[in-house]
Design goal:
rod-shaped, Arc Repressor Mutant, subunit A, DNA binding, two-stranded antiparallel ribbon, Rna Polymerase Sigma Factor, Chain: A, WH-like_DNA-bd_sf, mainly alpha
Length: 168
């Protein structure tokens, strides 16, 4: 197939591809852009088209893959398109950079709250926090395992109440 014949076939197929592009993009301008990009890719890769195969299916595949690639690129960029008249690309507010100040304040508050606990609750809680099992704590402190579980529960509850400003 010559370049002229291929161009003519592409122009004939553009009418059938337009509704598919509109279905994918849900916007007439974006559909026109997608159609134009599909036609350009098809023309530049015309040597890869096997004569005797289905041109329409080949073009639909190119269009679908182009749409998916463009969508993934837009998502990776972390931007969205403002569809108002001024058509700006605006950075998404989903991406934010945090410094460690918030974490440092939280850690200081956590440590202060732990220090405020009565020793009867703080000791089993800190042992559990360091990786001891309930039965190991009970053995070391020479108290029943139920008492260990209860004291850890009370310590958690008190810490939760003292640190409620950090709830999401």
């Amino acid at each position: 197939m010559t370049a002229l014949e291929f161009s003519y076939s592409l122009s004939q197929m553009s009418k059938t591809l337009q509704p598919f592009a509109l279905k994918l993009t849900k916007d007439r301008e974006e559909a026109n852009d997608l159609l134009q990009e599909t036609m350009l890719k098809a023309y530049t890769n015309r040597d890869k088209f096997a004569k005797g195969t289905n041109l329409k299916a080949w073009l639909y595949t190119i269009m679908k893959n182009t749409f998916i690639t463009n969508y993934q690129r837009m998502m990776r960029r972390g931007t969205f398109i403002d569809t108002t008249d001024n058509l700006h690309f605006i950075n998404s507010s989903k991406v934010k950079i945090e410094n460690r100040a918030y974490g440092d304040f939280a850690l200081k508050d956590i440590n202060t709250s732990i220090e405020k606990l009565d020793d009867v609750y703080k000791t089993p809680f800190m042992m559990y926090f360091r990786g001891f099992k309930y039965h190991e704590i009970a053995d070391r402190l020479e108290i029943p395992i139920g008492t260990v579980k209860n004291r850890i529960h009370i310590a958690r509850k008190q810490l939760k109440d003292q640190l409620r400003i950090y709830r999401a």
